[in-house]
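Field reference: sequence -> structure
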Amino acid sequence: MPATAYLTGLGRYLPGEPVSNDQVASRLGGVDRRTERIRTRIQSANGIRQRYYAMDTEGRTTELNEELAVHAIEDALSDRGIAATDLGMLACATTQGDLLVPGFASMVHGRLGGGPMQVLTAAGVCASSIAALDAAVSKVRLGEHPRAAVVGSELASRWLHQRRFDGVTDHLDAHFLRWMLSDGAGAAIVEFQPRPDRPSLRVDWVRQVSLAHEHEVCMRAGLDGPSAVAGSTWQDYADVATAEKAGLLQIRQETKVLDELAAAGLAQFEELVDRGLVDLTKLDHVICHYSTNAFRDVVFDALSRRVPGLDTNRWFSNLETCGNTGAASIFIALEEAWRTGRFSAGETILLAVPESGRFSFGFAHLTVVEPRRSNR
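Structure field:
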């Protein structure tokens, strides 16, 4: 029997109380007429109704990103019924940790505890979660670790408060993400065999692909334009304050190329189908991370052309209620779908994560399997 890996526990953590659309401005600041106009337009288009921030009403950070990650991991460990000491590996994904150095995974491990373990920090944006999953699954399949934990965690709110925009060169592409992103963490336990007491999710395959050779930078921080040249990054300015005033410490998005991202993602999905990795007639569930419901509609239209009469109930997202939490989103959505009884034994699940950073995509195919039978 070929070596494989299974997701045996899932967890998530969303900080604080849910924040509705009408409450976002009071939390992040920025109530002038122009900002309000931008906020209303973006929120009405993305479909998000509420999100969560690790930030109080005074704009003060209430928890570290590493704390969000640990809460989610502990939730997944509890779901599986094991402890941090049972882990051999910890793979962590985030857009930006709390510190420049050391790596995010080292900080999460230090707070989580447990024993000696391999750690990996997967840097990037949204698809870094699939990179972390791929690494953990590969190590478990190789037999190097019987158990691993994977977590995607984001604390974007620190970048989004009005104080980050006051006295800074105005960039509309920074306002776009300001009203899109929020905080949270999602985690999974990976093991070499199914759990004995409940169904597990077998990891059939994981695929990642970068199209950076064909595209300029799209989502970025630390760079003014879409191309990096020597002397042009935030570290090359006379001091950090000057770089911040120029807007280089804001998270920015080239919105005009997002249609290209959707088209490229669909092309990658079509390739999976053509290679036989995805059988659309037997695919029971799709969990896709996206930033706006408009992307979902584009995908529905494309899939309907391929599969006439496609049942859109196969599609699951909690973007509207949990917000866009970047690298954490795919695990937060998977956890909710699993916890609410959406899956049954024998069903298949496709995880899909497009990343606009410089056009990369992550996919994973899962199958729901019955509990492990005892040998007795």
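Note: Residues 143 and 192 are 8 Å apart (CA to CA).
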